[in-house]
Amino acid sequence: MRRTRALPRLGLVFRLARRNVVRNRRRTLVILAAISVGLWAMLFYAAFSRGWENDVVDHAIGTLTGHLQLHAPGYLDDPSVDHSMAPPDAALRRLLDGPRVAAWAGRVRVPAVVQSERETAGVTLVGIDPEAERGLSFIDGAVGEGRALTSVDERGIVLGRALAERLDTGLGKRVVLMSQAADHSVADRGFTVIGLFAADREATEMSFAFVGRRRAAEMLGLGGRLSEIAVRLGDRSRLAPMVAALRRAAPELDVEPWTALEPLSQAILSLAESWIWIFYLVMYVAMAFGLVNTLLMAVLERTRELGLLQALGMRPRLILGQVIAEAALVLAVGIAVGGALTAATLALLSGGIDVSGLAQGAELWGMSKVIRPALTLADVVSAVALVTVLGLAASLYPAFRAARRVPVEAITRG
Q1: Most buried pick, 135, 270, 287, 305, via CB within 10 A?
Q2: CA trace torsion 35, 39, 40, 44 (10° rounding)
């Protein structure tokens, strides 16, 4: 019996709440605007931050790092020919050729100086196997002028466009590479520029010079030895188990994930994650003040009405429920509108946000020229949950104020 009596009362509460929401259109629109714009701001900022994070990760992995790398002990502190390693043995090669690895490549990678007819610049000399680099690093498909390297015995060199401009050189011209050889003498060799590569960031174009791996090894006197082995996984979530497996297979080598190899990128990711929650908190507090103030004014305007309802027998808990139901209805509509605004905004920005105008400032924070916003389900759920909890919590104080009014006092005051 109690349940059958409660249902009509609950229906009455929602009917009254709906009537008050529709009746006070201006106030309702103000609350709706606060909720929808607040949710839109939270979701759009989260989408921009996630896009930034994805860009940082893609750049860190796709430049030359991969998901993990293997080096000789001491190479990360002193990346010279003195810290080279032998090619992978049979046991390590079986693991690298396994199903968990999408691509891997051995490289010769040392500091060097490149000299043209007019200028000189410090670079990182990278000797690569072009076939192995496919699907592993950015250099596969990055050459926009001239042609790419074709083999480990390639006699040409590929430079970044920005580096070529600084050196005042170009396709078909010769440059000289100089570095330290294995016997500690100065190794130098002339190469013809056969290609110029483009990258999302100018710093990448300025940093690397690519030649065939065997040519680099001959120049440096390394024989068949390598500077590093870069690995890209098919599933990034399997990074930790793969690092552990490689350390067991090659205990004499230094095996590190990209998060350790790219500490700046990892710091930027942590900072971006923190900023998302700080922005959520700021929006939460701003929306809370607005909602409490608006709902409280709505209750004060209806003091006489609420007093009459109590005088006619409506219990305080139903008055409480009516005010909370009003907030819930407005929240539901506001969340729907905010979600629609976010979806429309992301659809309009599906091609990305051009931040090239920020130039070097964007690169300093790990941004490419274009940031593509991306939302995760967790971001949507957390933002909607925060707004819902906020709205209901903000409605409690005005609701209690309304429920605690003495009918006679409310009527005489009205």
Answers
A1: 287
A2: 160
> Residue 122: which H helix or E strand, with range?
strand 120-128
Q: 285 by DSSP, 3-state: which?
A: helix
- The residue length of the chain stands at 414
- Of 147, 128, 150, whose CA–CA distance to 137 is shortest? 128
Q: Tell me the Ramachandran region of residue 131: left when phi exceeds 0, alpha when psi lies from -120 to 50, beta otherwise.
A: alpha
CA torsion through residues 65, 70, 72, 76, sign? positive
Match 């690093």 to its residue by tokens. Answer: 137
Tell me the pTM. 0.68
Q: How far apart are CA 354 and CA 346, in angstroms?
A: 14
**Joined tokens for residue 83:** 């810290």
Determine the 3-state secondary structure of 120 from DSSP: strand
Six-digit token pair at 331? 């929240």
Q: Decide: helix, strand or coil at residue 328.
A: helix
In this structure, the dihedral spanned by the alpha carbons of residues 147, 151, 153 and 155, taken in order and rounded to 10 degrees, is 0
- 201-248 residue pLDDT tens: 788 899 999 999 999 999 999 988 999 999 999 888 889 999 999 999
CA pseudo-torsion sign 305, 311, 314, 320: positive
Q: How far apart are CA 15 and CA 293, in angstroms?
A: 24
Q: Which of 4, 6, 17, 7 is nearest to 319 (CA)?
A: 17
Q: Alpha-carbon distance 276 to 287, whole Å?
A: 16
